[in-house]
Amino acid sequence: MTLPYILGAIFIFLGIGVKYFKWYFLISGYNTMSKEKKKNVDIEPLGKLMGNFMLLIGLIVLGSGLSHEFGFKSLSTTLLILIAPLTIGLLIYAQKFDHNWQKNRGKKNKTGIIALISITLGITVFIAGMLIVGILDPNVEVGEDIIVISGMYKRNIKVEEIVEVSIKESMPKVLRKTNGFNMGYTLRGSFNLEGEGNSSIFVHEDKPPFINIRTIDRLYIVNFRDRIDTEDLYYEIKSVFEKN
Known about the structure:
The protein is of the alpha+beta class. It is 50% helix and 23% strand.
């Protein structure tokens, strides 16, 4: 979890540079303008705005990292999601300082508005999709020979390779993600677990119990948001396992 702290510190450092030391060359768009166009930009208030924005983003990233560190994973995810609407709001508000943009009204103006709306909708749809994935339980199909965990990072578990099936109230500590998805307490895919190494988990980390399916070379952990549904799945998997 050192990455959020590094990124947060970088944003704060750059924010201080732009706001207090006038590192305007860091402002995207302005740094590529011709000298003539730069004259039509109120660079000092724009610089303060951009500096404050970078400082805010830095604090948000740091807050997200600390929240995750202390177990407030939903808050950590919410803070990161805030960055998208804040960035869009900044792009819209910053136009008031660019008189080049204001002088070119008409088709260019409409094109810019349409582009901003499209970006807003795209980001909104993406975030909504990620939240839906976080809410939904994994889809698990139990067959006589194979157990299929569908959805993101699909896994097929051959029953003949299973050596143990158990249900536990807690799961090993997640050390890092190797190839997966995590949002708040929802984890899908491959993660390195303390004492277990690389494992496949499909869990709501805050909704015990957890079904542990141990094969010859890998540990799989899965659960549902509802305890009864998780227990029913456990007995179904255990029944198939004991028949082999």
